Fold these 3 entries.
Entry 1:
Amino acid sequence: MRAIQIIELTGPDHALQLAEVPEPDASHPMTPGEGVLVEVHAAGVSFPEVLQTRGRYQIKPDIPFVPGSEVGGVVVSAPERAAVREGDRVAAFTMLGGFAELAVAPVDFVFPLPDEWTFRQGAALILNYHTAHFALTTRGRLAAGETVLVHGAAGGVGSATLQIAKGLGARTIAIVSSDVKEHVARAAGADFVFRADGPWKDQTKELGGADIVLDPVGGERFTDSLRSLNEGGRLLVVGFTEGSIPEVRVNRLLLGNIDVVGAGWGGYVMNKPEYIAQTGVALAKLAADGAVSPIIGASFPMERAADALRLIEGRGATGKIVLDVR
């Protein structure tokens, strides 16, 4: 079968190779003997794959390996306890191996696709939407009527957060860097959109402040995020796409009675199948209500996987970036 491999750790320009590799068997290290084999139609591309091409991600398989952690496709085979069956259209989290014509997902990480969703949207579901739902509800304790500010609001996690927050009854503020990204943020449900290089902290305070700030970016804006929070506010740390990891002056937390909260979805859910299933049900309801519908920013054929990663690394991506496998 065709697959994209990472063959060296030199970055997107030279690390990727389209190759013929053996088909996987229907097993997965996370659920031995119980993997769901999926015919991949679209594969999601995310920042972790960029890091993997440089050997900077926490998961470091021996090279060569097939990257790709989420796919949209059709079930080829599934164990008895799976919630899906052969022929079902699904979204699946594979951890690795998704940039291929066939991939295997752990049985607990495969979800039926809404009828109206495309395979591309299926490839956009799990990392972004499960992360955003986990961050807002489990870690952020979001209540209806609260105000949520989202950095990187036009990206995959950002746009997912806006949609979920709106679906759960929040008011939303998006921070973006361009007119194009403002358009995406508004399409995702932002009530207000401010520029990252402008006085967004003061603008947020003029609106009454934020109860939750979700930050997948990190870097220099971190302190102003703390300053934009209301008493009892929560700053949710999701990632550091800007590249630098900020530090917290804890006196700010004391004086403002605010929280800085880590939201690491992957580490939290790995041994919690019931939680994974509950999140799937919650997101399916939000999708049925029309609140959740992944935004696809760009798609590339497998041969242009390097272009997809470069787009993300250059911070030019909006919504979800996908590879069209079939």
Note: The first strand starts at residue 2 and ends at 6.
Entry 2:
Amino acid sequence: METPSAIRARPPEGPAEAEADAWSLICRLARLSRRPGFDPTRPQWLRVKPDGDLTPLGAGEPRGSDWAWRPDRGWIPSRGSRDPGVQALLDLYLPLCGSSPEGAWVVGHLGQSLDGFIATGCGDSFYVTGPENLRHLHRLRALSDAVLVGTETAACDDPRLTTRLVPGDNPVRVILDRQRRLPPGLRLFTDGEAQTLLCCDEARVAWGGDRQGQARVLGIPCRNGRLDLRTLLVALEGQGLRRLFVEGGGALVSAFLAQGLLDRLHLTLAPLVIGTGRPGLRIPAPERLADAHRPPVRLFRMGADLLYDLDFGARSRTQGDTLGGTLTPLARIY
């Protein structure tokens, strides 16, 4: 099956090779848009070289381009793919490869059961969703400058937060631990696999206590007994971390959503009923259903799981209160 030149660097041997080429190109586009000299307010055009590298074209050469950057639409290929697997990858991940001139850009993810739980009552979460969604998490990490998790996720899961399941760079690992109570023996603080930041109450950063194992400690002001998330985003931007992935848990993702700090949320539903346990999203409820969040949505099937791609940033990019959802046909991600 033919794959367009905008996607492949060499003729693929089959669907798996075509999708691998597509993912490699997606990573290249994401890295390009994160470079300091990239201007997201200006249209740009690119050509894909035979070795897969991207060559910028002048403003007067758009006809020979394979890819275009549009400030209002992001990365756009000159032609779509006839390979459904490749097209599904492009549809899902290209919206995450952009750059914002207005500061941090934040995407969250939660994988939960049909009845809205991300783990059992004792914290067992291995695994609510299937292997396809786990690979998706690693792809989200690869497209991000930093991956953020809260105290409970770090303590219960002892995660590595690397991209070991997919090609791509490891993000900076950002651990939010207001009271600085996580044990220093966690893998995040000892494995050396990626840079790590421990963000805690600034009152708990003593002179000379700016390290926890191999992690740097960053003090953040608190508000109402919680880390001030808006100040946190500014502080991370000062560290060069602008494209942020809030991986969990439910309380942290809910806090970002409640404060209007999520641009996009990937909510994956697994065909699983837990009964009770640790909840996923929990935000202040409106009195009227008409005031509830109803963002534009796209659906992607991941094995037996169903991923809802919710665009919470759409409201700020459109005029008026237009939160009506747009449902796209299911695309399958492997």
Note: Helices lie at 15-34, 84-93, 131-142, 151-157, 187-190, 229-238, 250-258, 314-317.
Entry 3:
Amino acid sequence: MDQNRMVIMIAVLVIAIIVIAAIAYVFSRRRRSLQIQQRFGPEYDRVVKQEGDPRKAEGVLEFRQKRREKYKIHPLSPADRSSFAIRWNEVQARFVDDPRGAVTVADSLVTDVMQARGYPIGEFDQRAEDLSVDYPRIVENYRAAHDIALRHGAGKASTEDLRQAMVHYRVLFQELLEEHRERKGA
């Protein structure tokens, strides 16, 4: 009888350990998901929708973050910041007389600032993904502005569309000029 009791106690103990481990795993996954959601904000929702599964989306976002950690992103020097600010002011002034040209130059200027900060410059989707790690709340501005720039290239963007593209580019441009990064919890 004592041996049966011992076997039952061991079985209960093993089951309890398995249950505790399962609860800890579920809690850990939820906490990880919540951290990723908070870190990426609206970009998390966009990637979940794109991937169709939160786990896949979280894997995509974690991959982006690990890739981004390999880059040597740095603030602009005061001279570079000033130079880019002057160039941006010229682009904005150009908009009045040449909205189409201004949007084209604004797109290029944002890319130049990204490159000066240390972001690799490849295809647009890759640049947007890289930015989403540091600027998850405004990367959608970049996508929207770029979409308008593409429509402009096809002759399908109105002056109001071009104005909106400039607003989107300006938000991102201003963030890129700043020394802080959104990733620090802003």
Note: The CA atoms of residues 71 and 119 lie 7 Å apart.
